[in-house]
């Protein structure tokens, strides 16, 4: 599993003008069972996406499709972690 950590680097007004396309991008990867959860940080300085992928390289390719990446609206950090514990309802999604 991967944590994709977004840090906004432009004013929120500029970011919001690309929000609809960003949400469309998120939905694409939810339908592919790659994204597990996403949302804004509090305070609104960025966002977090939880993703399932085979490799960090695969996540990097997916990020390049994000309008926030394409328009240089946010910086992205990827952290990989191994799920040692999880809610039982995630078992099918995690394929463990």
Blueprint of the fold:
Elements: E1 2-8, H1 12-16, H2 19-31, E2 35-40, E3 46-51, H3 56-63, H4 67-70, E4 74-80, H5 91-94
Structural category? alpha+beta
Low-confidence stretches are none
Mean pLDDT: 94
Strand content: 25-35%
Q: Could you give the order of the helices and strands?
A: EHHEEHHEH
Major sheet: 4 strands, antiparallel
How far from one another are the termini? Answer: 12 Å
Strand order of the largest sheet: 2-3-1-4
Give the proportion of residues in helices.
Answer: 25-40%
Number of strands: 4
Quickly count the helices: 5
Please give the radius of gyration in angstroms. Answer: 14 Å
Principal-axis shape: globular
Descriptive account of the structure:
By secondary structure, the protein is α+β, with helices and mostly antiparallel strands. It has a four-stranded antiparallel β-sheet with strand order 2-3-1-4, covered by helices on one side. The chain has a domain at 21-75. Helix content is 35%, strand content 27%.
């Amino acid at each position: 599993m991967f944590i994709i950590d977004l840090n906004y680097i432009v004013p929120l007004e500029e970011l919001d003008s690309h929000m609809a396309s960003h949400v469309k991008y998120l939905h694409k990867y939810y339908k592919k069972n790659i994204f597990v959860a996403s949302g804004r940080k509090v305070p609104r300085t960025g966002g977090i996406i939880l993703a399932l992928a085979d490799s960090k390289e695969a996540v990097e390719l997916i990020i390049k499709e994000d309008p926030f990446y394409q328009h240089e609206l946010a910086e992205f950090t990827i952290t990989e972690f191994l799920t040692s514990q999880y809610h039982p309802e995630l078992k099918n999604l995690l394929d463990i």
